[in-house]
Each structure stands twice: as C-alpha cells, then as structure tokens.
C-alpha cells in the first residue's frame, strides 16, 4: 500500500473515567481506503477509543487532523461538521425508534445537509437498496430483524457521505444466522474503498479485511501490524484469535 | 318534587355555561403546563448545574405548597404587586398552569430519561446538533411515552380547577354553590355539578387514550412484556 497523506489522524488520545485511566495515549493514522481493525480483551478500551475518535466521548487530551487540517474539537460548530464526515456504526444499532427505515436515513439529510424531502428520499432509497432493503423502507425499527436494523444503520451513516466509517462490533448483537448479511455489506464497503476503523471479534473479517491490526489492552495499543506480520505463532494477536476460534468452534484453518 | 325539577331545568344552562369556563381554565392551564413543563424537563436533563438547581427549586416549590395557598398568594399578592390587573379566571389559569408545569416537568423528564441513550449518540455521529436531536428525536418519543401520565395530570387539574370558585371565577363549582344556596336544592345541584366534572374527565381521558393509540409506533406491543 502506498503511503499517502492520512485522511484522519489522531494523536495521544487519553481518557479517564472517575480517576481510572482507560486510554493512555493512543495514536492512529488512517490512509484513504485503509481498514484498521481493533482487537483485544474486553475492557481494553476499544469502544472508548472509537467514541473518542468522533468525540462522542470527549477525550482528556488528544489532537485531531482531518485531511491534514487540525480539528478544533472544542468548537461545537467545528465538531458537528467533523462528525458529518466520520460516520459510526454501533453494536446495538441505535436506530431512531419512532421513524421508518426510510426516515431514519432521510432525517439527517434534511436537517444537516439541508436537502428537501424529495431529494433526501431519493438518496435514502439508493442507500437502502445498496444494503438490500428496498422493500422494507416503510417499516419501523421494531418491525425489523437485527440484521436488517444494522443494515439500515449502515445506510443511514453512508447517506452522509462520510470520509471514514467507525464500526464498533457491528455484528456482536446479532444472532449467528444474521451476521452473514451484515458481514456481506461490510465486505462490499471494503471493496468500494471505504476507509474504516472497526472493532470486531469476527475472525473472518480480521483475517481478510484488515490492512492493519491494532491489539489494544489496558488502554494501550500493545501490538500493531499487518495480519501477515501479526497472525503468526507467539504474538498476542494470534493468541487472541486462537481463543476466539476455540470459543466459536471454527478451529484454526 | 316538581318544583325541584323545574329549578334544576332552569339551573342547567347556567351550570353548563360554567363548564365552558372550567374547560377554558383547564385547557389553558394544561397548555401552559405543557410548554413550561417540557422546557423545564429539557433544561433539567440537558442543562448546566445552575439551571438544574433553579428548575429543581421551582418544581419543589409548586409541589410543596397547597394550590389554595398558591391561588391566594398570586392573586392577592404577587399579581397585585406586579400591577397586573387579572380577572379571576386568568389568574386561576396561570396559577394552575404554573403548578401543573412542575408536575408535567417530572413526567417529561422521566420519559426523556427512559429513552435508550444510544439514539442521541447516533444522531450526533450524523452531525446533528444537540438542539436538532432533542427536537426531532428525543421529544417526539418522550411525548408519546408521557401520554398516560399526562392524562392523569389532566384529570387532577380538572378537579383542582374547582378551587377557582374561592376567587370568584364563575366556573361550575362557583355556579353550583350559588344556585344551591339560593334554592336550597343542594343534593340535586351538586349531583349535577359532579356529573358534569365526571363527563368532562371521561371525555378528556378518552380523547387522550385515542391519541395514544393513534401515535403508537408500529411494532411495539401495547401489552407490556
Ligand atoms: N462511561 C463510563 N464510565 C466509567 N467507566 C467506563 C465508561 N465507559 C467505559 N468504561 C470502562 O472503560 C474500560 C474500557 O471499556 P471499553 O468499552 O472501551 O472496552 P472494550 O475494549 O470496548 O471492551 P469490549 O470488548 O467488552 O467491548 C472498561 O473497564 C469500562 O468499564
Ligand atoms: Mg466495546
């Protein structure tokens, strides 16, 4: 991979909760189209780090650059604009419960991008078709399966044309037989060159999608490298994947 | 007996006209309480500490003092010293409105806090401002959740409005008392007054139950867990 200018860079992110340090200085630099995957034991700080990247959790310290321009996260206006360009997918979907699938997607198009109703609906239809939900647009979140909900959430995020997508265990809340449809959508995004940072325990995604793996533990990135370099006997990352394998019963290939 | 019937017949239009005034007081007070209570609930959940404390004090004051005391305090005291020359009906509407605002603030605050937190985060990640999120995502859901408790509050305010007669507002109770003390037909007159309150409560509660059903979000069961 050619080393171009990073599209998003964060430096020295720290965060404590109630005096307990959770992130102890984490750096990340993302090239366009690059996919970085966060792994590591529960409580290691993956979710906290992802939410610090778009300031859903405001970090105690840290510097941000989007396309090489510094981002002043203390300004609400700058922050709202920054977040438009950094989409996020959550483990538990977080759809707007009172809106149909279509309106979940159109709301921010209208309120944030200022599109009129028709243009927003057209755009939303395109995104919802991309994730295979063109026949579900009138349904409410409570009428959708978990996999369908997550696909609506992905369509909602993509409709904003984000430059980077953050995904926090996008398949962890799904029944095993529903993970496939969401994984397919994520693979498709990767194929189209979407820049992503994803926390996941899905071995197949780690192996096949990651340009780089970051192994996080106790608030630090303790291992960092390509799957080829890291998924070899003796590394923490390989040990972690072995454990996932034995838990899921997949067995090492 | 015949005499009683004709007295009641004569008094009925007079009492019913009073029910219009009662309805005006209650609708006005509930509307004022809705606007104030909703704003206070938003302030209590999302505001800074100073605002939270100030709003907490407001709620505590209006919950802690009897309505009768509040009516006298404001009508003869506060409004008087402010130089406001309010009619009894206007004064009662405002005092009941400010009181129910305190209770409604608690209703709406509870509903906002009961919503899953993640939706606020999701809206933020789309670049929506806090105010946009509150207006388009939080409040539409919190209001739906609040309807049953709000319906309760409506029936309480309707009955509290009978206290307006102490200020001389010509609503149902004041008129009933006037007719009863002149004609000595206490029993039938107060039965009628009670019936009118009952019918107004029933109509309001029915209408709100219907509203609750109309705005129910598809896919959610109405049967609980
Ligand atoms: N709002 C909070 N208040 C206090 N502590 C928190 C908060 N959020 C996270 N933590 C703590 O921070 C640590 C890191 O949590 P985090 O959710 O980032 O871990 P994670 O790596 O995502 O774990 P998992 O794999 O289980 O999702 C945990 O010890 C957690 O208890
Ligand atoms: Mg997590």
Task: Report what the structure shows.
- The complex is a heterodimer of chains A (253) and B (225).
- Chain A is an alpha/beta fold.
- Chain A has a single domain (8-248), classed as 3-Layer(aba) Sandwich (Rossmann fold).
- In chain A, 38% of the residues lie in helices and 23% in strands.
- Chain A has helices at 46-53, 76-84, 101-111, 117-130, 146-158, 176-191, 203-209, 227-230, 236-248; strands at 8-17, 20-30, 35-39, 61-66, 69-70, 86-89, 164-168, 196-199, 212-217, 220-225.
- In chain A, strands 6-7-8-3-9-10 form a 6-stranded mixed beta sheet, sandwiched between helices.
- In chain A, strand 4 and strand 5 (69-70) form a beta hairpin.
- In chain A, helix 3 (101-111) packs parallel to helix 5 (146-158).
- The longest helix of chain A is centred in the C-terminal third of the chain and has 16 residues, at 176-191.
- Chain A is globular and about 55 Å long.
- By secondary structure, chain B is mainly alpha-helical.
- Chain B has a single domain, classed as MetI-like fold, CATH 1.10.3720.
- Chain B has 8 helices and no strands.
- Chain B has helices spanning 2-46, 49-64, 67-81, 88-114, 118-125, 130-160, 172-183, 186-214.
- In chain B, helix 1 runs antiparallel to helix 7 (172-183) and helix 2 packs across helix 4.
- The mean pLDDT of chain B is 93.
- At the A-B interface, helix 2, strand 6, helix 3 and helix 5 of A face helix 5 and helix 6 of B.
- Bound molecules: adenosine-5'-triphosphate and magnesium ion (MG).
- Magnesium ion (MG) is lined by residues 46-47, 168-169, 199 of chain A.
Keywords:
A: 253 residues; alpha/beta; Rossmann fold; four-stranded antiparallel beta sheet; B: 225 residues; mainly alpha; MetI-like fold; flat; binds adenosine-5'-triphosphate
Distance between the termini of chain B: 55 Å
Order of helices and strands of chain A: EEEHEEHEHHHEHEHEEHH
Helicity of chain A, in percent?
25-40%
Structural class of chain A: alpha/beta
Q: CATH H-level name of chain B... which superfamily?
A: MetI-like
Largest sheet descriptor of chain B = none
Distance between the termini of chain A: 26 Å
**CATH homologous superfamily grouping of chain A:** P-loop containing nucleotide triphosphate hydrolases
CATH topology of chain B: MetI-like fold
Structural class of chain B: mainly alpha
Bound molecules: adenosine-5'-triphosphate, magnesium ion
Q: Work out the helix count of chain A.
A: 9
Shape of chain A: globular
Query: Please, how many domains of chain A?
Result: 1
- Which two chains form the greatest contact, residue counts included? A-B, 32 and 22 residues
Alpha carbon gyration radius of chain B: 21 Å
What share of the residues of chain B lie within helices? over 70%
């Amino acid at each position: 991979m050619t080393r171009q200018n990073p599209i998003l860079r964060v430096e020295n992110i720290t965060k404590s909760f109630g005096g307990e340090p959770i992130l102890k200085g984490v750096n990340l630099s993302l090239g366009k189209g690059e996919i970085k995957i966060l792994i590591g034991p529960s409580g290691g700080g993956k979710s906290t780090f992802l939410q610090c990247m778009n300031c859903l959790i405001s970090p105690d310290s840290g510097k941000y650059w989007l396309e090489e321009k510094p981002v002043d996260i203390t300004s609400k206006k700058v922050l709202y604009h920054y977040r438009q360009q950094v989409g996020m997918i959550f483990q538990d979907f977080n759809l707007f419960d009172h809106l149909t699938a279509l309106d979940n997607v159109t709301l921010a198009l209208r309120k944030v991008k200022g599109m009129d109703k028709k243009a927003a609906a057209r755009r939303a239809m395109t995104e919802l078709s991309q994730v295979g939900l063109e026949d579900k647009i009138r349904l409410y979140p409570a009428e959708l399966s978990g996999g369908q909900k997550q696909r609506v959430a992905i369509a909602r995020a993509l409709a904003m044309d984000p430059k980077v997508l953050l995904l926090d265990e996008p398949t962890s809340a799904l029944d095993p037989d529903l993970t496939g449809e969401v994984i397919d959508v994520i693979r498709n995004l990767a194929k189209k060159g979407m820049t992503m940072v994803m926390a996941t325990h899905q071995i197949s995604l780690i192996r096949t999608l990651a340009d780089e793996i970051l192994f996080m533990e106790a608030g630090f990135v303790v291992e960092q490298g390509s799957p080829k370099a890291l998924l070899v006997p003796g590394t923490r990352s390989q040990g972690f994947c072995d454990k996932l394998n034995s838990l899921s019963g997949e067995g090492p290939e | 007996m015949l005499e009683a019937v004709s007295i009641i017949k004569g008094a009925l239009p007079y009492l019913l006209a009073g029910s219009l005034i009662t309805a005006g007081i209650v609708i006005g007070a509930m509307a004022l309480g809705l606007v104030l209570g909703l704003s206070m609930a938003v302030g209590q959940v999302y505001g800074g500490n100073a605002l939270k404390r100030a709003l907490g004090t407001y709620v505590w004051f209006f919950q802690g003092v009897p309505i009768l005391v509040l009516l006298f305090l404001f009508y003869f005291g506060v409004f008087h010293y402010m130089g406001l020359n309010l009619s009894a009906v206007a004064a009662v509407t405002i005092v009941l409105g400010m009181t129910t605002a305190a209770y409604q603030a608690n209703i709406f605050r509870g509903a906002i806090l009961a919503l899953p937190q993640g939706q606020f985060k999701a809206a933020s990640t789309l670049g929506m401002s806090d105010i946009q999120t509150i207006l388009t995502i939080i409040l539409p859901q919190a209001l739906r959740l609040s309807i049953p408790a709000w319906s309760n509050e409506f029936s309480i305010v309707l009955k509290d409005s009978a206290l307006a007669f102490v200020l001389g507002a010509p609503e149902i109770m004041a008129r009933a008392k006037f007719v009863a003390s002149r004609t000595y037909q206490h029993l039938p007159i107060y039965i009628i007054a009670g019936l009118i309150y009952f019918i107004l409560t029933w109509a309001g509660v029915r209408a709100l139950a219907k509203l609750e059903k109309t705005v129910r979000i598809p896919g959610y069961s109405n049967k609980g867990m």
